[in-house]
């Protein structure tokens, strides 16, 4: 269920019912009383490592990257968040500060919910508990795959995987080819675990092979099936 940037709190609750299943009025009130909505500009930090994870985040509208500072100040994008995904809550359950940071990739709207209220809802509603258990389990599996892929695949396969990931998360524009997210070359390199110069060279190679077309930050996927083959071959 997709929402736009002007959603009210009640509309967010309706979307949650779509994700979680029926919510008694008392639980809806608990969520509403402990939620506030914030708007962020492109490139704005949502949270940073060492911050205390007191609030869960729900991306309502926009695009967000979760990243970790690496050796020599180089960032590694851990995941990209799509609308109606929760993020920024693992550290709370682990009883530790954030180990990652999050930043908007474009203007975004985010709902903040107090973690204590979330825990209360999880205790009162098994479906919510199961939702987050599945969410964390899937994310752990995804991260395990990403670690192997980013360290063992050839740079062509890593970039192909990144392009497919962006397509799967954010979709395409109305032409059916252009990714609906315009990443900088630095961010694309960070998502693919390579240097910016390697990302630029590999993008150019893909363009020469007619797999993609490049127009500034806009990338058209001309042959998604071949990109999937490159990704699979590693």
TrEMBL record:
Q: Which Pfam families match?
A: cNMP_binding, HTH_Crp_2
Q: Where is the HTH crp-type domain?
A: 153-225
Q: What PROSITE patterns does the record point to?
A: CNMP_BINDING_3, HTH_CRP_2
Highest taxon in the source lineage: Bacteria
Q: Which GO terms describe its cellular component?
A: cytosol
Alphabetically sorted, this entry's keywords are:
DNA-binding, Transcription, Transcription regulation
- Residue stretches making up the Cyclic nucleotide-binding domain: 19-139
Q: Care to name a GO molecular-function term for this sequence?
A: DNA-binding transcription factor activity
* Residues forming coiled coils: none
Supply the name of the protein. Answer: Transcriptional regulator, Crp/Fnr family
- Gene source species: Segatella oris C735
